[in-house]
Amino acid sequence: MLNEPREAMDYDVLLVGAGPASLAAAIRMKQLSAEKGTDLSVCVVEKGAEVGSHIVSGNVFEPRALEELLPDWKELGAPLDTPVTKDQFLLLSENKSLGLPHFLLPKEEHNDGNYIISLSKFVRWMGEQAEEAGVEIYPGFSASEVLYREDGSVGGIATRDVGIGKDGKPKGTFARGMELRARVTLFGEGCRGSCSEEVMEKYNLREGVQPQTYGIGVKEVWRIPKEKHQAGLVQHTLGWPLQQTLMDKTFGGSFMYHMEDDLVQIGVVVGLDYENPYINPYEEFQRFKTHPAIRKYLEGGECVQYGARCLNEGGYHAIPKLTFPGGGLIGCSAGFLNGVKIKGTHTAMKSGMLAAEAAYEALTATGAEPVAETAEINPEEPAIDISSYEAAVESSWIAEELKAVRNVHAGFHNGFLPGLLYAGVATHVLKGKEPWTIPNTVADSAKTRPAKEFTPIEYPKPDGKLTFDLLSNLQRSGTNHNHDQPAHLRIKPEHSEVPSKESFPVYAGPEQRFCPARVYEYTDGSASNGVPQLVINAQNCVHCKCCSIKMPKEYINWTVPEGGGGPA
């Protein structure tokens, strides 16, 4: 059964992941089909049970790309319901806060004309627009395998088989995955997508660029008392609890966004280039909520949702080569987030639009009949080259934005105060015109230092009202996986001894702390030769991808579970 042939469907363009980048690309592709008269078939495949179910971002949305893609978005009912009315930026000590005047903030931190949105809700709306334009969208199907043609080019993806038990044997519910073949495949899986990482390695797309660096965002949604709610308020902070001294090298900050209906999105982003293995991003977030400037909003309220997701923070110099034979990388699969703006949706959408334009031009230039008319790909057609997409990004406002702030994150490698001073000079004076690049040559996984150099951090116990233990909060994520399936988190065979011989004895098992879902734990009960053994609770996974980034030697291979599994 496991070796029986898969059913196959052919498309002109396949998009992997139904996020802002892929949906913008799909819509743009159908717009070009209508404008130029050659209709191309477009398919989007999404591992979440519904479009938007795996989108957890707290989001201040810049509508620049949306204005270009759908100028009549207001008439179409785009859910941009809460205009930003006030920006607030605070520097925190343990008990005090200092508000920075608006004129001191870089223009990247000004949110005039932006909106506080639910990105999940917005993505669902984009999906509706795409389907109305003729795009086929298939949620609940995990892209588990990249398909390659005989010439070595990408030819689509295969979805994961379902109905396989933990023992690897087919169950009564077994169904073979499907091949979705395409002339052009665009990967828009988001940060650290498994298929995207595969093609980057296969085609050596990261050659000559800096290692990507990441952050882990931990977020809650609260419903707060009406008298405390200020619809449109955007608040960001730096300082406590992540930076406890002026020379602290831990990078990160917080956000609080007041949405509609007395809802507040609140969270902390911790740079995964931190050195101290005792740092626990989830607990840092819980501690942050106890600050007087923050708790005053939350007291008397109710936490209604929890989630976590990694994001790219490497910026311009960490963007890989964007194209390969038969396709390209878009959105956060490539790493277009603007870390100073703390925004990436607008750049993701623009990248998808540019990729769609390059793909449409390349597909129609071949003279071959589209799959939309023939229902199958011509096997004699050579691999489609969309390399013009790369040049289009470089000449677009995406590159202009990212170049201007390319050194800001790296400026914090020498400490909080030096980083803050450099950020001010870079954004107010240099504005991206500095003739130097601050290098980053080390992956986040290699920046963790031995535990013996640090003191364990004692975090306050949760009170169950303002702060919560992780497993209680995990229930608010809606995370659900079929327990009787092969684990999607797998130790790489070549690193099978890293947990017991390196991670635990040298780094005190940091995966127990950086995972925001308690997937990983070392238990004395299963100790072998006196060394605690790693237990992987894959059913808890919220699909943040942190483990594939921060593990010593990156020893975990993050693969997709059955379609529909994960956060709701």
TrEMBL record:
The keyword Ribosomal protein does not apply. Coiled coil: none annotated. Residues 532-561 form the 4Fe-4S ferredoxin-type domain. It is an enzyme of class 1 (oxidoreductase). One of its GO terms (cellular component) is mitochondrial inner membrane. It is found in: Mitochondrion inner membrane. GO terms for biological process: electron transport chain. Its EC number is 1.5.5.1. Its main location: mitochondrion. One of its GO terms (molecular function) is metal ion binding. Keywords: Electron transport, FAD, Flavoprotein, Iron, Iron-sulfur, Membrane, Metal-binding, Mitochondrion, Mitochondrion inner membrane, Oxidoreductase, Transit peptide, Transport, Ubiquinone. Its cofactor is FAD; [4Fe-4S] cluster. It catalyses: a ubiquinone + reduced [electron-transfer flavoprotein] = a ubiquinol + oxidized [electron-transfer flavoprotein] + H(+). Binds 1 [4Fe-4S] cluster. Belongs to the ETF-QO/FixC family. Accepts electrons from ETF and reduces ubiquinone. This is Electron transfer flavoprotein-ubiquinone oxidoreductase. It comes from Phytophthora ramorum (Sudden oak death agent).
